[in-house]
């Protein structure tokens, strides 16, 4: 079974803090994705990566950056957290297919 | 501009009856469609998919229908069970997007409640 793990299930941070969300997949998948899920807005793509050190902006990249130094790990960085970044963050991976495997999510609250 | 639309935020169905979840899309370049199911506090899980070369795909109690001319797809669940209560997301992709990214565009989701 494919396993996608995220570093934290729940996180509380203060406005202005730098926040790191980590995602690890164990199936040698090439593609990795970061989404946020908000009520009434569905899943929106923040960034994705199709290879090590490669990254592409999704639909809502503002306020975020990413890092992919190793194939199995994809990090989402909030340079200076703001309250409007309070959300559920979901990581996913895929291997040469449209079917993406998701992690359990990180509920981030910025106060 | 919302390219994948799920116009019903919620749906309630009696146990044993059919659940029909609908999805419309606007981008004619989309050629692969998926349905995901999401329980609270969990990540979405893949349910079923369909390529644009087909108009129907079936997997057990789940069937997806695609009407390309209407740019519409639907997910049928028969019979519905209480464990099917979840949020269902429709997603679409285009093989023309390049870079091998297999990027998906998701709808906003429909919350299905199956009443025992």
Describe this entry's structure for a reader:
The complex is a heterodimer of chains A (111) and B (116). With 111 residues, chain A is mainly β. Chain A contains no helices and eleven strands. In chain A, strands 2, 4, 5, 6, 9, 10 and 11 form a seven-stranded mixed sheet that branches. In chain A, strands 1-3-8-7 form a four-stranded antiparallel sheet, with no helix packed on it. The termini of chain A are far apart. The relative contact order of chain A is 0.34. With 116 residues, chain B is mainly β. In chain B, strands 2, 4, 5, 9, 10 and 11 form a six-stranded mixed sheet that branches.
Short description:
The complex is a heterodimer of chains A (111) and B (116). Chain A has no helices and eleven strands.
Q: Helix and strand layout, with pairings?
A:
The complex is a heterodimer of chains A (111) and B (116).
Chain A: E1 4-6, E2 10-13, E3 19-25, E4 31-38, E5 42-49, E6 56-57, E7 64-70, E8 73-78, E9 87-94, E10 101-102, E11 106-110
Parallel strand pairs in A: 2-11
Antiparallel strand pairs in A: 1-3, 3-8, 4-5, 4-9, 5-6, 7-8, 9-10, 9-11
Chain B: E1 4-5, E2 10-14, E3 19-25, E4 32-38, E5 45-51, E6 56-59, E7 62-67, E8 72-77, E9 86-93, E10 105-106, E11 110-115
Parallel strand pairs in B: 2-11
Antiparallel strand pairs in B: 1-3, 3-8, 4-5, 4-9, 6-7, 7-8, 9-10, 9-11
The assigned structural class of chain A equals: mainly beta
Average residue pLDDT of chain B: 93
Largest sheet of chain B: 6 strands, mixed
Helix amount of chain A, in percent? under 10%
For the biggest sheet of chain A, the summary is: 7 strands, mixed
Alpha carbon gyration radius of chain A: 13 Å
Q: What does the radius of gyration of chain B come to?
A: 14 Å
Helical fraction of chain B equals under 10%
Straight-line distance between termini of chain B: 38 Å
What is the overall silhouette of chain A? globular
Query: What is the chain-wise order of helices and strands of chain B?
Result: EEEEEEEEEEE
Poorly predicted runs of 5 or more residues of chain A: none
Beta-strand content estimate of chain B: over 45%
**Which structural class do the helices and strands of chain B define?**
mainly beta
Number of strands of chain A: 11
Counting copies of identical and different chains, the oligomeric state is heterodimer
């Amino acid at each position: 079974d494919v396993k996608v793990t995220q570093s934290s299930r729940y996180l509380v941070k203060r406005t202005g803090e730098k926040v790191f969300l980590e995602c690890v997949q164990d199936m040698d998948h090439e593609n990795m994705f970061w989404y946020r899920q908000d009520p009434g807005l569905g899943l929106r793509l923040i960034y994705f990566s199709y290879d090590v050190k490669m990254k592409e902006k999704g639909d809502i990249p503002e306020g975020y950056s990413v890092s992919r130094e190793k194939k199995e790990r994809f990090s989402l960085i909030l340079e200076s957290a703001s309250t409007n970044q309070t959300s559920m963050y979901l990581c996913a991976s895929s291997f040469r297919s449209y079917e993406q495997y998701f992690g359990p999510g990180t509920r981030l609250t910025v106060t | 501009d919302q390219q994948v639309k799920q116009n019903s935020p919620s749906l309630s169905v009696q146990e044993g009856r059919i659940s029909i979840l609908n999805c419309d899309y606007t981008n004619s370049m989309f050629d692969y469609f998926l349905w995901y199911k999401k329980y609270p506090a969990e990540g979405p899980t893949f349910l079923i998919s369909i390529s644009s070369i087909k108009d129907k795909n079936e997997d057990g109690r789940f069937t997806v229908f695609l009407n390309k001319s209407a740019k519409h797809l639907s997910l049928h669940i028969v019979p519905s069970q209480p464990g099917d209560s979840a949020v269902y997301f429709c997603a679409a992709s285009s093989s023309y997007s390049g870079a091998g990214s297999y990027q998906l565009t998701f709808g906003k989701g429909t919350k299905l409640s199956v009443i025992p």
